[in-house]
Amino acid sequence: MDLFEYQGKQYFARFGIPISKGGVADTVDEAVEQADQAGYPVVVKAQVKVGGRGKAGGVKLANDADEVRTHAGNILGLDIKGHVVGRLWIEHASDIAKEYYASFTLDRGAKLHLGMLSAEGGVEIEEVAVSNPDAIAMIHIDPVDGLSEEQARAWVDEANLDEEARAQAAELLVKLYRCYVEGDCDLAEINPLILTPEGRVHALDAKVTLDDNAAFRHPEWEEFAGSDVEDEREARAKARGLNYIGLDGSVGIIANGAGLAMSTLDVVNQCGGTAANFLDIGGGANADVMAAALEVINSDPAVRSIFVNIFGGITRVDEVANGVLEALKRVDISSPIVLRLDGTNAVAGRQILADHLSDRLVAEPTMIDAARRAVALAGGKS
Ligand code: GDP
Ligand code: MN
Prior knowledge:
- This protein is of the alpha+beta class.
- The protein has helices at 5-14, 28-38, 65-75, 125-131, 149-158, 166-182, 232-239, 258-270, 287-298, 317-330, 346-354, 367-377, and strands at residues 22-25, 42-46, 59-62, 79-80, 83-84, 88-92, 98-107, 112-118, 136-141, 185-195, 201-203, 207-210, 243-246, 251-255, 277-280, 305-312, 337-343, 361-363.
- Helices cover 35% and strands 25% of the residues.
- Strands 7, 8, 9, 10, 11 and 12 form a 6-stranded antiparallel sheet that branches.
- β10 and β11 (201-203) form a beta hairpin.
- It is elongated, with a radius of gyration of 27 Å.
């Protein structure tokens, strides 16, 4: 889950990372109230989960309440790369002597955490990586050892941060690392991390991605719920406890086991079709699970046919067959369904379905036959 800048900053603050005083506003009047409290001059900042807000006109300096009104009015409703601004963060403006870049993320290839630090911040780090890769000091951190203050100090030296910024930056990086690890982030990025003319180092921006798999140990993340723009279908599936990922094709897919679900996507593609989703119903293919799965797929208007691909192992195909029939009584499905049922008790399962087959409920003997049929019913090759 990605956080908004203001949420990211508040998350940083819990770990002692210095940020500017500020508050959120959803209206122009609220923006003025927050600006009055933060103290002028202020920066009016669009809260959208996309970078490059500054360039898009979503970050403006305001010297007084009138300027706040003007900028807040312009930024609210602004479309930044497809994200419409509905909320602002207003903070006391900082004077900037230098802009740096700092981040922690996971380097999957190295199986280590990766820290990136640059004296050339403010601009997009991808640009620096291309134009001047030597300006980025990288450090790999073993999660068992963590990041020591000594390492952090050597790191800021290597990145060539200004002398007066180094001690504070090293201290801040250790805190950011703690935030990244203890806070269960996939990404904790500060761009720009600034040095003020008075010699203070602090975070002017925050980009935080939380690791959803760690949500169970963070009840406090509840406050971020609903702020993420989730795929509606995925939200519906999650509420029903399904393992579902929305895609943009036209063949809805229900399979048992992640491996079979993946190969079902492949076979649908091989037959010239496109999958509308990945859905692994796991071992529990009873009527409840089947009804929930069909409901979620049915709610996707792009779906033109549904391919149910079950290979019974511990899951018994006769139970699946009953589950399908029961689910069809509960849910009014708008697309034709193609069944491929094999494995444990397949014969009994097919028997159960035999009397119910029609042009809306089709059975095919093999996976490839079923995929071809589902693709044809979805309107043919795309
Ligand atoms: P982004 O464009 O989405 O990354 O938004 P940022 O929060 O990074 O802001 C963009 C740029 O606006 C920064 O790189 C700064 O140059 C500038 N900026 C942001 N806050 C302040 C501030 O308090 N004072 C000044 N002088 N500039 C700021
Ligand atoms: Mn930024």
